[in-house]
Specification:
Length: 130
Protein backbone atom coordinates (compact mmCIF):
# COMPACT_ATOMS: atom_id res chain seq x y z
CA UNK A 1 0.00 0.00 0.00
CA UNK A 2 2.61 2.55 1.06
CA UNK A 3 4.77 1.71 -1.96
CA UNK A 4 1.79 2.31 -4.27
CA UNK A 5 1.03 5.66 -2.62
CA UNK A 6 4.67 6.74 -2.88
CA UNK A 7 4.93 5.74 -6.54
CA UNK A 8 1.65 7.48 -7.33
CA UNK A 9 2.85 10.72 -5.73
CA UNK A 10 6.05 10.50 -7.78
CA UNK A 11 4.05 10.08 -10.99
CA UNK A 12 4.95 6.41 -11.57
CA UNK A 13 1.38 5.27 -12.21
CA UNK A 14 2.41 1.92 -13.74
CA UNK A 15 4.47 1.10 -10.65
CA UNK A 16 1.65 2.28 -8.37
CA UNK A 17 -0.84 0.05 -10.21
CA UNK A 18 1.46 -2.97 -9.80
CA UNK A 19 1.93 -2.26 -6.07
CA UNK A 20 -1.81 -1.80 -5.52
CA UNK A 21 -2.60 -5.00 -7.45
CA UNK A 22 -0.14 -6.91 -5.27
CA UNK A 23 -1.74 -5.50 -2.09
CA UNK A 24 -5.27 -6.12 -3.44
CA UNK A 25 -4.38 -9.79 -3.95
CA UNK A 26 -3.02 -10.11 -0.41
CA UNK A 27 -4.83 -11.93 2.35
CA UNK A 28 -4.95 -8.85 4.56
CA UNK A 29 -8.60 -7.72 4.23
CA UNK A 30 -8.11 -4.04 5.09
CA UNK A 31 -5.02 -3.61 2.91
CA UNK A 32 -6.69 -5.47 0.05
CA UNK A 33 -9.83 -3.34 0.28
CA UNK A 34 -7.90 -0.06 0.45
CA UNK A 35 -5.60 -1.12 -2.41
CA UNK A 36 -8.61 -2.04 -4.55
CA UNK A 37 -10.10 1.40 -3.87
CA UNK A 38 -6.87 3.19 -4.79
CA UNK A 39 -6.47 1.02 -7.91
CA UNK A 40 -10.01 1.88 -9.03
CA UNK A 41 -9.21 5.55 -8.43
CA UNK A 42 -6.09 5.29 -10.64
CA UNK A 43 -8.01 3.51 -13.38
CA UNK A 44 -10.97 5.92 -13.32
CA UNK A 45 -11.17 8.47 -16.13
CA UNK A 46 -9.19 11.48 -15.00
CA UNK A 47 -11.09 14.76 -15.05
CA UNK A 48 -9.62 18.12 -14.15
CA UNK A 49 -11.20 18.63 -10.75
CA UNK A 50 -10.94 21.98 -9.01
CA UNK A 51 -10.26 20.33 -5.64
CA UNK A 52 -8.31 17.30 -4.45
CA UNK A 53 -9.79 14.80 -1.99
CA UNK A 54 -7.61 14.05 1.04
CA UNK A 55 -8.43 11.37 3.61
CA UNK A 56 -7.83 12.37 7.22
CA UNK A 57 -5.89 10.09 9.54
CA UNK A 58 -8.14 7.15 10.29
CA UNK A 59 -10.40 7.71 7.28
CA UNK A 60 -8.37 5.14 5.29
CA UNK A 61 -9.25 2.50 7.89
CA UNK A 62 -12.90 3.59 7.91
CA UNK A 63 -13.04 3.37 4.12
CA UNK A 64 -11.38 -0.05 4.17
CA UNK A 65 -14.15 -1.23 6.53
CA UNK A 66 -16.92 -0.30 4.07
CA UNK A 67 -18.64 -3.50 2.94
CA UNK A 68 -18.06 -4.55 -0.66
CA UNK A 69 -21.74 -4.12 -1.62
CA UNK A 70 -21.63 -0.36 -1.01
CA UNK A 71 -17.92 0.21 -1.70
CA UNK A 72 -18.34 1.63 -5.22
CA UNK A 73 -21.19 3.92 -4.15
CA UNK A 74 -19.16 5.33 -1.24
CA UNK A 75 -16.11 5.69 -3.50
CA UNK A 76 -18.18 7.57 -6.11
CA UNK A 77 -19.61 9.87 -3.43
CA UNK A 78 -16.13 10.71 -2.15
CA UNK A 79 -14.95 11.42 -5.68
CA UNK A 80 -17.93 13.68 -6.29
CA UNK A 81 -16.92 15.88 -3.36
CA UNK A 82 -13.98 17.17 -5.39
CA UNK A 83 -16.24 18.08 -8.30
CA UNK A 84 -18.59 20.18 -6.17
CA UNK A 85 -16.86 20.98 -2.87
CA UNK A 86 -18.99 23.97 -1.87
CA UNK A 87 -22.49 22.89 -0.82
CA UNK A 88 -25.26 25.42 -1.37
CA UNK A 89 -25.59 27.89 1.45
CA UNK A 90 -21.87 28.31 2.14
CA UNK A 91 -20.61 31.84 2.48
CA UNK A 92 -17.83 31.53 -0.05
CA UNK A 93 -15.55 33.91 1.89
CA UNK A 94 -14.36 31.48 4.56
CA UNK A 95 -11.18 29.58 3.77
CA UNK A 96 -12.30 26.48 5.70
CA UNK A 97 -15.93 25.44 5.38
CA UNK A 98 -17.84 22.64 7.04
CA UNK A 99 -18.12 20.09 8.39
CA UNK A 100 -20.61 18.80 5.85
CA UNK A 101 -22.25 15.38 5.52
CA UNK A 102 -23.02 13.23 2.49
CA UNK A 103 -24.82 9.90 2.54
CA UNK A 104 -23.99 7.00 0.22
CA UNK A 105 -24.22 3.23 0.41
CA UNK A 106 -25.65 3.28 3.92
CA UNK A 107 -22.69 5.35 5.15
CA UNK A 108 -22.35 8.97 6.25
CA UNK A 109 -19.31 10.81 4.94
CA UNK A 110 -18.17 13.81 6.98
CA UNK A 111 -15.99 16.32 5.16
CA UNK A 112 -14.65 19.87 5.12
CA UNK A 113 -13.41 22.16 2.35
CA UNK A 114 -10.17 24.12 2.56
CA UNK A 115 -10.42 26.81 -0.10
CA UNK A 116 -6.85 28.01 0.53
CA UNK A 117 -5.12 24.82 -0.65
CA UNK A 118 -8.12 23.60 -2.69
CA UNK A 119 -8.63 20.34 -0.84
CA UNK A 120 -11.64 18.40 0.39
CA UNK A 121 -10.76 16.72 3.69
CA UNK A 122 -12.77 13.55 4.33
CA UNK A 123 -12.81 13.34 8.12
CA UNK A 124 -14.95 10.29 8.66
CA UNK A 125 -16.92 7.48 7.01
CA UNK A 126 -19.40 5.83 9.36
CA UNK A 127 -22.16 3.30 8.83
CA UNK A 128 -25.50 5.07 9.24
CA UNK A 129 -27.39 4.16 12.37
CA UNK A 130 -24.29 3.42 14.46
Amino acid sequence: MILGMTLSRRGDLAGARAAYRYAADSRHPQAASMAAWRLADLDAPQVGQPYQVVLARGADDQLAAVDRASHSEVHAAIGALAAAPKPSGTGGHDLIMGPFHSDAGGHRITWMVNDADRTVLVMGIARQGT
